[in-house]
Amino acid sequence: MKNKLKNKNILITGASDGIGKQIAFTYGSNDANIIALGQSQSGLEDLDTLLSEYNAKTTLVPIDLKNYQLIHELEKKLCEKYNKLDAIILNAATLGTLSPITHIDETEWNDTFSVNLTSNIIILKVFEHFLKKSDAPQIFFMTSDIINDKKPFWGLYSATKAALEKIAYSYAAEVRNLKIKVNLVDPGKVNTKLRLKAYPGENKLLLTQPEDLSAFFIDIIFNENISSSELISYEKWKNENT
To answer: What family, per the record (predicted)?
Structure first.
């Protein structure tokens, strides 16, 4: 297990909490070098404390992904420490307000699309050259099956995820002649702050916990049996591995 990730450079967005933090811990504790992007300074510092026990090489990047200039500046700084990226995990997302379409605030619309969609495109543009230097580069776009539902009030969030899926599939086709593997990952119903905001009365004990995802994310990254342009479901994986 450790040889698979040893000395791999992995950039993870939304790494200061929830699923992103768990992915960063899982990969970092298995010998990967982690570049952790997150909005919460304290969350990133907690991650760093957890990984210090494993002597993991961790770069903490407090960042507001709505500020695209900061992403460009990050590329310059990473050039000083890393010569390549082996994987990018595009996990960061914001829920926005669940409301009727005609009640959506224009600023919140723009902010939600900035985090959930546009920042991911900027990251691809800025860091693609790092990925091309890896022997087996990998990109995971985090998605949700909410886009397949016809629920009221979910228009904003589901629109960002639907657009992100189209971007992912298009990009996968564009780089199919390169070595870059591009996949979507659906972690399912996970106990996170984002889900709590959407379903405040839900029983957390009935949900997948972030730590439950560790074996899943270890298995799917750099997995030669998984091709590009796939949607990888945790629920499907769990059913096949239990």
So the answer is: Belongs to the short-chain dehydrogenases/reductases (SDR) family.
